[in-house]
Amino acid sequence: MVAIHRPGASLILTRFALVDRAQLERVQPDCILMPLIGPSFDAVQLLTLLRQLGYKADVCVVTGPLPAPVMVLEELNRHAGRKDVHLLVV
């Protein structure tokens, strides 16, 4: 997970295992950037955790080209419990 904090923009890199309510309260990220599929977690796991922790700010999920990006985005939004997850295809 990468947390982005504005103004003056800072970038904080952390591990999935370290994401908890205390870290979110300390960092107060404006946006969380995560891979669709990482080496030790996937976006569904982190989105579910963030929903449980009450995280409400922006979320961007990075992925390579997908055959059905709209379907993937709908699934991510469902797990996030919201409608504003952004899918960044690179």
Give the structure's gist in a few sentences:
This protein has 90 residues and is of the alpha/beta class. It contains 3 helices and 5 strands, in the order E-E-H-E-H-E-H-E.
How would you characterize this protein structure?
The protein has 90 residues and is an alpha/beta fold. The chain has a domain of 56 residues. It has a 5-stranded mixed β-sheet with strand order 2-1-3-4-5, with helices on one face. The chain is globular, with a radius of gyration of 12 Å. It starts with a strand and ends with a strand.
Helix content: 25-40%
Number of helices: 3
Radius of gyration from CA coordinates: 12 Å
The structure class reads alpha/beta
Topology of helices and strands:
Layout: E1 2-5, E2 10-13, H1 21-27, E3 31-35, H2 43-53, E4 58-63, H3 69-80, E5 85-89
Parallel strand pairs: 3-4, 4-5
Antiparallel strand pairs: 1-2, 1-3
Helix pairs in contact: 2-3
Provide tags for this entry.
alpha/beta; 3 helices; globular; 5 strands; five-stranded mixed sheet; 90 residues; single chain
